[in-house]
Amino acid sequence: MIIGIDIGSTITKTVSIENGRMIKKIKTRAADAVTSATGALGKLIIENDINIADVQGLAITGAGAYKIKNDIFGIPTKRIDEIHAIGIGGMFLVGEDHIIITNVGTGTAVIEAGKGGIFHLGGSGVGGGTIYGLAKKLLPTADFNGVLDLAKTGNLNQVDLLMEDIMETDISFLNKESTASNFGKMLDSAGYGDIALGILNMVYQVIGMLSVFAAKSKNLSRVIVTGNGSNNPVGKDVLKIITDMYGIEFVYPENAEYTTAVGAGLSWNI
Fold first, then answer.
1. Backbone angles phi, psi at 14, to 5 degrees
2. What pLDDT score does 195 carry?
3. Of 4, 29, 40, 55, which is closest to residue 255 (Cα–Cα)?
């Protein structure tokens, strides 16, 4: 058994890999990398009655992996490049050998993965961290579920400048409901729900457009969305609008948030 551990800046994801299959998975949150990694490993082992002697190795990756210099609990520990792990994990989860992956975490990374290799095409500092930071200053809550609940009551017309605000007709493929400027209107009457929706809309529009440009540059029509941000229902609605406009499909594989941990575990023998 190989255990893959993705030590993120806020959440650590851990999976067990046996015979090329993901068997168990857990998530933990801790203040530092060492606590995250050891806590996640211990939780996985204890909650699933795993015999530690059956663990052949630990494959660690993510933002906190570089802080761990030695083996953990005497188990052989290997550091796996995060971009490589995302690429391997993404191909495994969708069963395809040439894909564009948009990994939405604290920031966003866009990756091409295929038989020819795994390449980091670029990305953005806009991601889950952006939502948290703006919500902390602009909303009464920065809690993920709280921001989502607020956004569900929101009206973009209160905060965003729309095409209908500046033009009387559609322009190219942009209809009158398309965003002309995120937060470009910001009416005095805008409430917390409107602001929450505006934040999520802005973040996922940036993520969506980066993904569209990457997919089109590689002549692909689908983008695999992974990471914690793949579970955002409001974000999915924003990406659906982008699909309708640009013809690029966004795919959310099962266990998408564990992609990097899965890829790390599968990379043990590579």
1. -135, 135
2. 98
3. 4
How many whole angstroms separate alpha carbon 34 and alpha carbon 19?
28
User: What would the DSSP string read from start to end of 50-111?
Assistant: --GGG--EEEEESTTGGG--S-BTTB-EEE--HHHHHHHHHHHHHT-SEEEEEEESSSEEEE
**43-65 pLDDT per residue, tens:** 999 998 988 889 999 999 998 88
Residue 169: is its pLDDT beyond 80?
Answer: no
Task: Tell me the β-bridge partners of 114.
Answer: 98, 117
The structure tokens listed for 170 are 């559609």
- End-to-end CA separation in angstroms for the chain: 15
How far apart are alpha carbons 17 and 7 in whole angstroms? 17
What is the token pair recorded at 133? 């930071």
Q: Is the dihedral of CA 236, 239, 245, 248 positive or negative?
A: negative
Q: How far apart are CA 189 and CA 198, in angstroms?
A: 14
Instruction: For residue 218, give the 3-state DSSP assignment.
Output: coil
Report the 10 Å Cβ neighbour count for 268. Answer: 17
Strands 249-251 and 222-226: parallel
Residue with tokens 């500046």: 166
